[in-house]
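Hey all, quick one. A colleague (J.T.) asked me to put the zinc ion job into the tracker so the inputs and the structure tokens live in one place instead of scattered across chat threads. No bug as far as I know, just bookkeeping. Sequence used:
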Amino acid sequence: MHQQIRGRYAPSPTGRLHLGNARTALLSWLDIRLRRGVYIMRVEDVDSQRSRPEYEARMLDDLRWLGLDWDEGPDVGGNYGPYRQSACHERYRQALAKLDTFACTCTRKDLAQAPRSHTGEVIYPGYCRQAPCNPDRGSAIRWRVPPGQVGFCDRFAGTVIEDVARDTGDIILRRRDRDWAYQLAVVVDDGAMAITDVLRGADLLASTPRQLHLARALGLPEPSYAHVPLILGEDGRKLSKSHRAPDLSALREAGIPAPRVVARLAQSVGLVDTSVHELTAPQLVETCRQRWGDEGLKQLEQRIVSWDSWGG
Ligand SMILES: [Zn+2]
């Protein structure tokens, strides 16, 4: 039988959606709508200090304004809930119990001399593997990462292979402050929600091998991955605060029509040309379907677009 395609967007409600978030959301929605799959909205509020319900409400509202819709989510329900990570403790606890873990009392300071990966992340040197270095301190929980290479083929980034034990070391699954780590939550949730296709920003490509390693250790099915380029500013660098590009809420409040935002975002990855000034999200689906049929997004071009002028 044909497997049901299931994809998701998983924002963290810790602020407003900038244009990069909006573009990734639009592309993940577009890919699933092209393939006639089920689209899921999952709120990644696992960080209890930074997450706020008012940010969640604004994000979902702004995404709807942009023209996105979802078949399952915290505000529409579905059979694979809960759709907020803050309600999934039991799910994470059960996953943790299946893994070989140890308590780690290392602080940031303890790890200051540890080796680092090419992305600047600490490669955990295993200080607490035999016994916690400092039993009087609160501890995080780490997974004793099994050795071996982890490989996968990304739809946009190609083949990625990593030896997670060597290049990352033992991974934190539960933080010292008792919050669940993102890496555990995302893997467990994708499994629990039967996600088949993950389309997300290229900034998460580097953490994909460890997520796959974890999924395999937990016996979860592996989704297919597609990491899309990060949005660029006019100088060709990754769009950041210094570019002063408006966030999605600001555009909406300024009275910019959503189809103009969709057209600009679609232009920036080469889905439509610069003669298109307004396009609704469903029109974008139809445009791409004429090009690629039901097979989903095939290629994206990184184009330089001006984000500071929204007239005309
Ligand atoms: Zn440690």
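Adding what we noticed when we looked at it: The radius of gyration is 20 Å. The chain has a mean pLDDT of 95.
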